Amino acid sequence: MKLFRWLWRIVWKITLWFLIISVGLTLVYRFVPVPITPLMVIRLVEQGLDPDQNMKLTKDWVSLDEISKNAPQAVYAAEDQKFLTHHGFDIEAMKKAWENNKKGKRIKGASTITQQTVKNVFLWPSRSYLRKGMEAYFTVLVELIWPKERIMEVYLNVIEMGDGIYGIEAASQSYFNVPASKLSRGQAALIAAVLPNPRRWSPAKPTPYIVGRKAWILTQMNNLAPLEMGN
Asked: Which end of the chain has less Cβ packing within 10 Å, N or C?
């Protein structure tokens, strides 16, 4: 009985501290730029352990009003067209993903911009049930505390956009030699086109598949109502 009470106290304390830290970090990041993410640290370790790679971490935080309106419009069109209306989860896409998974098929687009932001800012790359549960918890927390503008701003600043390249400013400078504020529609669409696998594809050297995906994204950008955020 004493052992049970002791274990219960330990679990309760761990849970309490987790809640305090997670809510505290979410509140802080509502206003403060995210300095580094778990994925950035993991990539640096991977680079450091590989004798054929140089360690590289290129990022430069910029506020949403310093980013061309083409960038959020492009990722909105490419990654999450229900971004403004959902509360962190695209239920319809999740159902389709579940059904196709049972059939042995794969589907793209089930992960929302909020979920991708959460995975980058708070969590680690994994397919475990623990990671999925943490992702759901932080997604709810972020949607409660951050406005959509902040979610988009953080997403555009922390997402991996190439080997050692993180955020829209670093990507703009690395691939097109322009600041994020000057990104054209085509350039923004190219960056959005490679997001499913930014270490395999490059906006500066698009494959035929990426060129086709860019054209599709541009069409979606034209068809969707403009996102009223940033420049």
From this structure: N
Whether the model pTM is above 0.85: yes
Q: Are 107 and 136 in contact (CB under 8 A)?
A: no
- Number of Cβ within a 10 Å radius of residue 84: 14
| pLDDT 10s digits, 71-120 | 999 999 999 999 999 998 888 877 776 666 666 655 555 789 999 999 99
Distance CA 121, CA 145 (A): 15
Closest C-alpha to 137, from 92, 88, 79: 88
Q: Other CB atoms closer than 10 Å to residue 86's CB: what's the count?
A: 17
| Tokens (6 digits) for 225 | 């109502």
